[in-house]
Amino acid sequence: MSEPYFQQLFADRIGGPGYGQGTEIYKFEKIKRAKRRALAEHPGRPLLDFGIGENDEMAPASVRRVMADEIGRPENRGYADNGIASFKEQAARLMRREFGVELDPAREINHCMGSKTALAMLPAAFINAGDVTLMTVPGYPVAGTHTAYYGGVVHRLPLRAENGFLPDLGAIPADVLRRAKLLVLNYPNSPTGAVATPEFYARVVEFARRNRLVVIQDAAHVMLTQQGRPLSFLEVPGAREVGVEVHSLSKGWNMIGWRMGWVCGQERIVRAFADVKDNCDSGQFIAIQKAAAAALADPAIPRLTREKYSRRLKKLVATLRRVGFDCRMPGGTYFIYTPSPKGAAGGLRFDSAEAASQFLITEHSICTVPWDDAGAYLRLSATYEAADEAAEDALMAETERRLEPLGLEF
Ligand SMILES: Cc1ncc(COP(=O)(O)O)c(C=O)c1O
Q1: pTM of the predicted model as reported, rounded to 2 decimal places
Q2: Do residues 326 and 338 touch, judged by C-beta distance below 8 A?
Q3: Is 69 exposed, middle or buried (0-12, 13-18, 19+ CB in 10 A)?
Q4: What is the atom index within ligand 1 of the atom nearest the CA of 116?
Q5: By the 8 A CB rule, do 367 and 50 touch?
Q6: 79 phi, psi to nearest 5 deg
Q7: How far is residue 385 from each of residues 59, 159, 173, 186, 256, measured CA to CA in Å?
Q8: Engineering a disulfide at 386: which of 217, 324, 342, 391 sits with its beta carbon 3.0 to 4.6 angstroms away?
Q9: Which of 54, 189, 190, 379 to mutate for ligand 1's pocket (most ligand atoms within 8 Å of CB)?
Q10: Which residues share a beta bridge with 371?
Q11: Distance (Å, rounded) from C-alpha 8 to C-alpha 186?
Q12: Region of residue 100 (phi > 0: left; psi between -120 and 50: alpha; otherwise: beta)
């Protein structure tokens, strides 16, 4: 194919004139291709898909009913701008009910079209060329991608088992700290499943004040807290002076595709976010905001979601342990993050989690997500499709039947 006339025009941030011509395949694309190949080569062998990071259920019927009513109301038809008051009021009620955090819905909360877009927009409020964003790895990379788009620099904070998958804030070089403006955290953490503690958050507040940083805490998985009660960064004294927390209805409410969440916390930062957002989109469809408000008003929804994934995670942990994985229940999320096998019976060696993951999918139709950022780990998700508990148990039995003979070595 000849080069399009505009090939030289692509901006450096997406690869410049070389855009679209590279041969590098990204991790999730590799997994998709391997899945397709496994299905084509072994049509009779069902795929055991622990790779999906999306809830397997629809939003509750009660929420879909509100949506069905609201979609027909003419007053919901227009631009929603920075969001309707009733959604923000429900978000404020939820923050009080779940975390004991009092927020002014008009000034300290703003809706977003899923937390991804909020994480994409927040760097625009702070990052000039050369500024640093501190980000934990492995993790959700969106705030870092946008930091780089603005000419900023990402400094990676590795999450390691020996530190409970909390970043070592003391290990950041002084020259990096001087240029740092944002500290992006994510607890419960994806993919490690670690949860933060009030003590850690207190250290973060002190660290942010001392180094004049803004904290962005990504709480997308907070309602999937599996151990202890869900914890908001904003509960910790001083947190609301140093940052914001980003929440999402995707995971806890089975509303992945609805694209609703909210940013809350320090008033000036919320306002800066709303200003950036106002220049990027015109707000989520009001019918969706009203359905999302109804979802937030019902505490049973996130409770049932958590209970379901907790049950499935327990079964998955037990199954994996029986075939040699050293895994345990995560503090939160619907993921198990576990050291990747180094080899298998017959002298097979895996030099990375990616190699182990490719072996499992191509040879045994078992899909996992590899992480090699801070040690070699596999992520297995409990969001696989299974109609009922009997189907879950059958899937676990089949997983064990396929993994057991492999003689995985760790
Ligand atoms: C850690 C984390 N943050 C944010 C998101 C984005 O979620 P959403 O945009 O659906 O709210 C995800 C989605 O997978 C995630 O895992």
Answers
A1: 0.97
A2: yes
A3: middle
A4: 9
A5: yes
A6: -60, 140
A7: 15, 30, 45, 26, 15
A8: 391
A9: 190
A10: 377
A11: 37
A12: left
Q: Assign residue 407 a region (left: φ > 0; alpha: ψ between -120 and 50; beta: otherwise).
A: left
Beta strands per DSSP E along 27-116: 48-49, 109-112
In angstroms, what is the span from residue 121 Cα to ligand 1's centroid? 14
In this structure, the residues whose C-beta lies within 6 A of any atom of ligand 1 are: 53, 114-116, 140, 186, 190, 218, 220, 248, 250, 256, 261
User: What's residue 271's pLDDT?
Assistant: 98
Q: How many residues does the chain have?
A: 410
Counting ligand 1 atoms within 8 A of each CB, the residue from 251, 253, 264, 369 with the most, and so the one to mutate, is: 251
The structure tokens listed for 361 are 């999918």
User: For residue 212, how far is its CA from the centre of ligand 1 (angstroms)?
Assistant: 27
Model pLDDT, residue 1: 65
Report CA-CA distances (Å) from 13 to 16, 136, 246: 7, 22, 25
Which phi and psi (to 5°) does residue 216 adopt?
-120, 110
Neighbours of 88 (CB within 10 A): 24
Only one residue has tokens 């994934």, namely: 309
Task: Indicate which residue's Cα is closest to atom 3 of ligand 1.
Answer: 220
Chain-centroid distance of CA 160 in Å reads 18
| Distance (Å) from CA 406 to ligand 1 centroid | 34
Any residues with CB less than 8 A from the CB of 342 and at least 6 apart, and which? 349, 350, 356, 376, 409, 410
Ligand 1, atom 6, residue with closest C-alpha: 116
Helices (H), 127-230: 142-149, 174-179, 198-211
Cβ atoms 315, 177 nearer than 8 A: no
Q: How many other β-carbons are positioned within 10 Å of the β-carbon of residue 202?
A: 14
Q: 146, 218, 223, 309: which to mutate for ligand 1, most atoms within 8 A of CB?
A: 218
* CA of residue 177 to ligand 1 center, whole Å: 27
Peptide bond between residue 138 and the one before it cis (omega within 30 degrees of 0): yes
∠ CA 284-286-287, rounded to 5°: 115
- pLDDT in the model for residue 188: 98
